[in-house]
From TrEMBL:
It comes from Plectus sambesii. PANTHER family: FI08016P-RELATED. It holds the Pfam family DUF229. GO terms for cellular component: extracellular space. This is DUF229 domain containing protein.
Length: 524
């Protein structure tokens, strides 16, 4: 309710004479239509990173100790399995078997066994396996592994695709986090933020506004340019629900058709964006798909924050890094990753990943993987469930997640020079997940200089950030419903107590009616 304060004041100020004659629907329609209030330029609120109302909920979490007994006996390097020298010194000769597993469906895995795997053996057939190892001193050890086994047919297909002159052939690496506002990212991932801004020269979107509630409502517009309600029914509790890949125009298809090898990696099987409420995928959606690993991990591992002696998030980071390690440089890559374990339900835990995320991004840079890559580090939305969400600033932060772009220096100084200038300008304007879809599509067919300098463009719901976005764009034009819009002018309601109370009651009525309508539209 706090987010409609400006509209309440506008209603009271402009309609005071016949205030009680207006019905609730008329009140809201008058507040959010093209009028003296909503026709103003969108002004994203400037929030205090050290706001006392937020800071009081923050603390430094206890260190994550995954090495309670000893370090992992084995590791993978350059696609090969190795037994650690330290483990051999401690336990004598070690023999290992591999229990490989892979996807049959989003609910079922298949597996096989490779016995007596030799030290230095190449990993084959599947990205995922459990190593079970025995030492001569009657000791045993097991652990799950995730790596990249290159899809040779995908490489052949990628190289066979005729490259369009309009294509950039840039890799795209998206690494996302759950429930991190732009300010919370800066508070909790300080080293990462500093590295992004100072070393990688990231552009941070200051006006990136969510368009719905929750992770699917963040990712679906990015991946399809549409909302869940605009697309066919995929909610799994309905008998007539479709699989997502059968009816959603997922953007990784566009990239695959243009010769990209693709990867999608969420760090949760049970609560993933496309599995918790939705039906999931009929066929494996991308060339590499991490769901099987976490299906098995959630069965076997009690402490989900650790994979053996290693933090879970480090295993997850490495999977994305291995994707770039194992495929040839001349094969274009689309990587989409989403992490929720440390950030979804707790404001503070994600701080445990700060050093490791910084290290991961440094390794990606130092290995040259970012030389031809558009890197996006982002969040789906801000905190939704924590106590901070009960504060006024917390409600605003929920709607303003972290979103950043990093472009290779050579590209932004040459072919992408105009686009980079536009991006920096657009960073201060209203942008949404719909715009990210258009931005990614431009990677496949780069705009002409004329398109990149055309400021007289019609306002659309999806507008590429490489192109000029009008400075007077408002929420209704960008596809942001009033409930989620942060472009509000806050004014004091002093002197209007009775009118504000009456309007608040009207808003409750309209909200209840709107929720009922949405449930009916969604088939609930």
């Amino acid at each position: 309710m706090a987010l409609v304060a400006a509209s309440v004041v506008w209603i009271v100020r402009s309609q005071k004479k016949n205030f009680f004659a207006l019905n609730p629907v008329a009140l809201l329609e008058s507040a959010f239509s093209k009028n003296e209030y909503s026709d103003q330029i969108c002004r994203i609120p400037k929030l205090d990173i050290n706001a006392p109302a937020i800071i009081k909920f923050l603390h430094t979490p206890k260190l994550l100790n995954c090495n309670q007994t000893e370090t992992n006996w084995a590791f993978i390097e350059n696609g090969r399995f190795y037994i650690a020298d330290e483990a051999v010194r401690a336990h004598g000769p070690i023999k290992c078997n591999h229990f490989r597993f892979w996807r049959v469906s989003d609910d079922k895995l298949a597996s096989d066994v490779i016995s007596d795997v030799q030290n230095g053996s190449m990993i084959e057939k599947s990205d995922f396996f459990r190593a079970e190892c025995n030492a001569t001193k009657n000791m045993s050890w097991s652990n799950l592994f995730a790596t990249i086994v290159p899809d040779l047919s995908a490489i052949e297909k990628a190289k066979a695709v005729k490259k369009s002159a309009a294509a950039t052939n840039l890799n795209v690496y998206i690494i996302g986090f759950d429930s991190l506002s732009s300010l919370m990212f800066q508070r909790k991932l300080k080293k990462t933020y500093k590295f992004l801004v100072q070393d990688l020269e990231a552009v941070i979107l200051e006006g990136y506004n969510i368009v719905g509630d929750g992770t699917p409502q963040a990712w679906i517009p990015i991946l399809t340019a549409q909302t869940e309600l605009e697309l066919p029914l995929t909610r799994k509790r309905y008998k007539n629900a479709s699989y997502i890949d059968d009816v959603y125009p997922m953007i990784w298809r566009n990239f695959s058709e243009r010769g990209y090898v693709t990867l999608y990696a969420e760090d949760s099987a049970a609560f993933g964006a496309f599995y918790y409420r939705l039906k999931g995928f009929n066929k494996q959606p991308t060339n590499h798909y991490m769901r099987p690993f976490f299906m098995q991990a959630e069965k076997e591992i009690k402490n989900r924050r650790c994979i053996g002696s290693e933090p879970q998030h480090v295993t997850w980071f490495r999977y994305g890094e291995n994707f770039f390690d194992q495929y040839p440089v001349d094969v274009s890559k689309l990587t989409i990753m989403h992490h929720s374990l440390l950030s979804h339900s707790d404001l503070n835990l994600v701080e445990l990943a700060d050093d490791d995320l910084t290290t991961h991004l440094m390794r990606m840079r130092d290995k040259g993987h970012l030389n031809n890559t558009l890197l996006i580090v982002m969040a789906d939305h801000g905190p939704r469930f924590a106590k901070v969400r009960e504060t006024h600033q917390g409600q605003l932060e929920e709607r303003l997640p972290f979103f950043s772009f990093i472009m290779p220096p050579w590209f932004r100084q040459s072919r992408g020079k105009l686009a980079w200038t536009n991006l920096k300008m657009n960073a201060k304007r209203l942008t949404t997940p719909f715009d990210i879809h258009a931005t990614l599509m431009d990677i496949l067919s780069w705009p002409t200089d004329e398109q990149l300098t055309d400021f007289d463009v019609p306002k659309k719901r999806s507008m590429s950030l490489w192109r000029p976005i009008p400075s007077d764009r408002i929420c209704t034009e960008a596809g942001v419903e009033a409930h989620w819009c942060t472009c509000l002018n806050w004014e004091s309601a002093d002197g209007y107590a009775s009118e504000v109370n009456a309007t608040a009651r009207a808003l409750v009525q309209v909200t209840s009616a709107s929720s009922a309508c949405n449930r009916l539209a969604a088939g609930e």
